[in-house]
């Protein structure tokens, strides 16, 4: 059987904004399941989530949520720019299901992108993916004296040494533990152990939604409040069968782009700061504040708390506010541009950025990296285009790709995205559609599954909610883009000098909280 | 070089005028909540039901705990009599946990923590920040203190990289089990005299994670807290105001 016909036969198609009844998810034989996931990824698709619904009997449901690429595979590997136009790349959403017992043959040797999902379900449910090449917990932390409940990667030999960092870092940063295997300044390998920010988010979702749920979603990752709250709202709205108004949808999109701009500007400023290029660092970090203040003008919170609510938005942009937000954001473009031009025109800064922390296209694609990190390595992925909501369909954002995959490419990518977001805000705020601000929070359909997908500033955010017969959550999955991309940091550091770490780190700027949940 | 200097000149001076003048905050900014329990309708408990973090209690008359509050103003939205209102007041820091519980009186803001703190640290304070299970929202606003807008270094306050260089420990997050040891170790490594600042609803009460079995209910069960700055997250001006008050510096 060819891959395409297998996929056609076993993958249950689904649509964003719609739920699927659980009894329509026919479990298939594990071998067909594994082949389907493999084929889908080989054909240019992506593994959005791989999760297990445990059962008391040893017959757990294993589901893979897939983004399937329709038509021939083509990647942006060597094109430097692609602007999307409707229908150019069509992705569809599908789910494939199987049953597993206490163990199953690991998918990872065939499908590298499954590696961390398998480690996670081993940790959370005790189900063993047999043959997984690096089976470790995902969120169990090394204790304070550095002892780990499992051996971490170590190199032997007289001339190699190990550098341990964390959980407390030198700056105002979230906690994580890093181990560098070095020879002099050169890093052979970096292994990152996370879990210090673990708050038990996922198990607490079971039996929800509750009144505190939206606040927890706004704090999955504090710098991605709008992104995660929106993905959560998509899940509940799909399970409840409601569709938010075009106006609410457009306001969410504006808040999401503000979030993107603020974070990209802050990171670009921090990148400049890390190489001691202060004219750009100071200016961009200041301009980031202006963007945060735009969020506060809209919803009272610099981090966008309170904007996204199930059924719509908590705040409206009346014509005068929309106009002033538009004018303020337009006025940011020139000073941001000037500060950026200085950075890119400085040979000493570029000397530090170029060739530092490279991630190849092949590695990025196989390990399933997302967001600007993936796009900087030429991987053609952006949920705003692949799974667009109404506003992104009518106002497509310009997408950019780089192929170098280094700090320079990731930095440039960030700036291109700031420019694209500025244009998006200019267009959307000029003509906000009409519609109800907020519909009543719906009741969940019983025994159903729904997916929420949002392109946050770090990349694709995926939420999956499954309801039970009582119309509450039976399980809930959150995949922050950092979940995929932390491995990118480890890959980027290989062969680099240890002093390149801060620069690599800033160019990724991954979330610990979003990973640790 | 000329280009850099020209651009720098065009960028101008951006540092906030605070504390010479009070900060201008957006109209929708959600600051301190105000209570007037006398306005409550008999038998109404809509605010209690609406609050996501059980910050409102009616057992001994209406009381609102700013230490648990996420400033979402769901309570204000459901209150039929304006017994609860949201003010734009950004000043929120207190010396004690108890002071954060509002019962209708005005919030008792912190004053200088002690004469020794004011004398030793009033013009030079090193702060070691530890993020312990937070979402990085508070961390983002603490980071903003060092940027050109808020520029807390003009008051002699610095975020330092080592606890050995620090005079105060600032903790964000509810303190996850994984970070409890690290918070203790950092506190021990700071030379005395020292004080501890709990920033944000999580660090004060556990915030939205108060019921989670994976976290402590804030930092006070791990190290003694001297200064409480509530919010989710607190605005950078709330943070500066709190820190300067604790040092005995004058603020608007």
Structural features:
heterodimer, A: 517 residues, Beta Polymerase, domain 2, Cytochrome-c3 Hydrogenase, chain B, 2 domains, five-stranded mixed sheet, four-stranded antiparallel sheet, 41% helix, B: 252 residues, Alpha-Beta Plaits, Rossmann fold, five-stranded parallel sheet, 8 helices, 10 strands, 14% strand
Can you offer a commentary on this structure?
The complex is a heterodimer of chains A (517) and B (252). Chain A is built from 18 helices and 18 strands. The two termini of chain A are 40 Å apart. The longest helix of chain A has 29 residues, at 246-274. Chain A has 517 residues and is α+β, with helices and mostly antiparallel strands. Chain A is 41% helix and 19% strand. Chain B is of the alpha/beta class. Chain B has two domains: 33-89, Alpha-Beta Plaits; 115-246, 3-Layer(aba) Sandwich (Rossmann fold). Chain B has eight helices and ten strands. The longest helix of chain B is centred in the C-terminal third of the chain and has 13 residues, at 177-189. The radius of gyration of chain B is 19 Å and the shape is globular. The mean pLDDT of chain B is 92. The interface between A and B is large, with 56 and 64 residues.
> CATH topology of the largest domain in chain A, what is it called?
Cytochrome-c3 Hydrogenase, chain B
Which CATH class of the largest domain in chain A applies here?
Mainly Alpha
Which CATH class of the largest domain in chain B applies here? Answer: Alpha Beta
What is the total number of structural domains of chain A? 2
Which runs of chain A of at least 5 residues are low in confidence (pLDDT < 50)?
A: 72-87
